[in-house]
Amino acid sequence: MKTWSELAEVQPLASKIITNSIKKDRISHAYLIQGERGTGKEAIALLLAKGIFCENKAGVEPCLKCNACRRITSGNHPDVHWIEPDGQSIKIEQIKNLQKEFSYSGLESNRKVYVIKGADTLTVNAANRILKFLEEPSKQTTAIMLTENSGSIIPTIRSRCQVIDLQPLNLVSFQNHLVENGMAKENAVLMSALTNNMDDAFAWNDNEWFASARKLVIQLVEMFTSNPDDVYLFVHNHWVPHFKERNEQEQGFDLLLLAFKDILYFHIENEASMTVLAPTDQLPEKAAMYFSQEKLVTILNAILMAKRKLKQNVHPTLVMEQLTLQIQG
After folding, report:
1. What biological processes does GO assign it (predicted)?
2. pLDDT tens across 250-301, in order?
């Protein structure tokens, strides 16, 4: 989504609100753009920045070819600053450095833009620091805050921003788009259950680690139904070594969640919604006989709780051990 017209196809309301502001030269001093991953938050931030600095705009559309547009795309424009979480959060030192940058005059104009990705991860001190920035708005400064979790943004920050809500992408449309670009239908169904992001979907589709992760999830479900006494050993010998990084562990739980949802779908004769397990295999039927619908609901809640524990920095091996016992119980 490199133009406002492209963005309007997936986010018509957000696109209309912002382009009307650009036409009337009433760009807000601060935006809070909230929506799920892949819904266009960074695309909007880039387009806004280009709209401010582009040297050859055609109406609201940036030219995408001038020096300013190209440097904003590459992340090298001296007056456009991006802040991302340092580890699990955005820390006060990062905001102090940003304020220091903004104490200087713009290198190429008096305009400055800063984009805060994962604004919900601001520490309390960092949030209070950025709040002071927002309380003294300058017409020459535009803040763009991006978040997937708007509930974690403190009310005093929200009240000083123009809030732009992005709608979830249409699932069927996204699947069709993946298929049109060469992805197998069954893989497109799985990817659409995991992400709204085209680049992520194709990266995972071609990734050997991801393919192995999916096989491990299927094997684990089969172990629960066929060899429950060996599950603990399987987790330590195969699951833990494969899912090493935090993002891999979260993705493992996402796949496991979908697999147990598949068993529930098989129970209620909704095989068309299955993603990880193949309806034509024997495993869904076997697992449906082993796990009751009530038990599956309990398991799904346990997996969601395991994901929350990961985000709370509980040791991942301990989280997986506890989840294994809950599924077996």
Report:
1. DNA-templated DNA replication
2. 999 999 999 999 999 999 999 888 999 988 889 999 999 999 999 999 999 9
pLDDT digits (tens, 9 = 90+) for 71-114: 999 999 999 999 999 888 899 999 999 888 877 766 667 889 99
Mean pLDDT (the chain) is 91
Q: What is the pLDDT of residue 106?
A: 61
- pLDDT surpassing 90 at residue 168: no
Query: Does residue 54 surpass a pLDDT of 90?
Result: yes
Q: How far apart are CA 65 and CA 95, in angstroms?
A: 31
Judge residue 298's burial from the number of C-beta atoms within 10 Å of its C-beta, 0-12 exposed, 13-18 middle, 19 or more buried.
middle
The identity of residue 152, as a single letter, is: S
Q: Which structural domain range is residue 264 located in?
A: 207-328
> In this structure, what DSSP letter does residue 65 have?
-
Q: Which residue has the tokens 């696109």?
A: 15
14: domain CATH number? 3.40.50.300
Shared-domain flag, residues 145 and 232: no
The region that residue 43 occupies, defined by phi over 0 for left and psi between -120 and 50 for alpha, beta otherwise, is alpha
* b/e sequence 192-227, b meaning 16+ C-beta within 10 Å: bbbbbbbeebbebbeeeebeebbebbbebbbbbeee
Tokens coding 329: 């119980």
